[in-house]
Amino acid sequence: MEHGRENEEARLIARFRAGDMQAVETLFWRYADSVLAYATRLLGNRTDAEEVLSDVFLRAFEGCMGYRAEGTFKAWLFRIARNCCIDRLRQPRLLRLEDGVEPVQGDDTADIELRVAVQRALKRLPEEYQTVLLLCDVEEFTAKEVAEMLGRSVPSVKGMLYRARTALRDALSEEWGEEA
Amino acid sequence: MKCAEVRELLGNYMDQELTESMMQRIEKHLLRCPACAYEARSIEQAREMLRRGVESPMVSEPLGERILNHIAERFPHLRATRSTEQPFSLPLLSLEDEAPSV
Ligand SMILES: [Zn+2]
User: Fold this and answer.
1) CA distance A67 to chain B (A)
2) B68/A137 touch (CB, cutoff 8 Å), yes or no
3) What ipTM does this complex have?
4) CA of B32 to the centre of ligand 1 (A)
5) What is d(CA A120, CA A26) in angstroms, rounded to the nearest whole number?
6) What is the pLDDT of residues A98-150, one digit of tens each?
7) Domain containing B38: what range?
8) Among residues B3, B59, B56, which one has the least CA distance to residue A38?
9) Residue B78: which of A24, A102, A172 has the nearest Cβ?
10) What is the pLDDT of residues B20-31, one digit of tens each?
């Protein structure tokens, strides 16, 4: 099944190269939400993430025009998204917005508190910890895929993931304690 | 099994990446050892909170369209097939203003 999707996406990419805008639209809408969500989580606010989103897809399709390393389109996209977010985070703080959690319709207070605590806890962790947690535990990439994205070995990703989970637990219990 | 060995494998245990017999050995240890059981449970809880608590914004239609237009502009070979949508319907003008298709 995973293989079927890979083949289908290889065909979509071939169609993009041949000039088919519909293939671009299909790939874009398939992943736009999850890339935006990932960038929002890494950057800490949605406005910055929306600005980064366009760049991510432009770079991804640019990459598709030439040589692209093995792996799924999604893995490729998230690798670029991470790089774009890191670039963005390196910019002077003045150019970026404050971190913030935006209320979503249907949210109750407990939901918002949880999201604030999670966002704060996540931001306290080193960037690589945030990355492995978001990619492995939220996006459900395999350790092998994440290892390829980060240029690390699988055991090193697994080790980092465990340390990151422990660190998240500690940060969350502090954030949650402060909330209460 | 010693606690240190269990901690070493806890990540793989949570992701169910161990052999059946190793999974059972760890389970047994967790039943007897409150410290390791707490470690496993609290990490699992944090992971659950992360999943439920992360921001999940969605891309609005206008933002998506804007980005797709950027892409179409960046790759000239795509222009031919970009469906040109009329953002506003101006039926009175559209007949006269229709540029001759090239
Ligand atoms: Zn123990």
Assistant:
1) 16
2) no
3) 0.85
4) 8
5) 34
6) 566 665 666 678 788 888 899 999 999 999 999 999 999 999 999 999 998 89
7) 1-54
8) B56
9) A24
10) 999 999 999 999
- Is the CB of B57 less than 8 angstroms away from the CB of A49? yes
Q: What is the pLDDT of residue A93?
A: 64
Burial class (CB in 10 A: 0-12, 13-18, 19+), A111: middle
- Contact assignment for B64 to A117 by CB distance below 8 Å: no
| Res. B40: pLDDT tops 70 | yes
The residues near B60 (Cβ < 8 Å, ≥ 6 apart) are: none
**pTM, rounded to two decimals:** 0.82
> A4: distance to nearest CA of chain B, Å?
24
| B3 CA → ligand 1 middle, Å | 4
Q: Exposed/middle/buried for A123, CB within 10 Å: 0-12, 13-18, 19+?
A: middle
By the CB < 8 Å criterion, does A142 face chain B? no
> What's the pLDDT at B42?
95
- Total domains in chain B come to 1
pLDDT value of residue A94? 59
Walk me through the domains of chain A, giving residue ranges and CATH numbers.
2-90 (1.10.1740.10), 98-176 (1.10.10.10)
Substitution target in B5, B8, B9, B59 with the highest count of A β-carbons within 10 Å is B59
B59-86 tens-digit pLDDT: 999 999 999 999 999 998 886 555 554 4
Q: For residue A166, give the chain B residue with the closest CA.
A: B43
A61–chain B Cβ distance below 8 A for any pair: yes
Surface-to-core class of residue B71, CB atoms within 10 Å of its CB (0-12 exposed, 13-18 middle, 19+ buried): buried
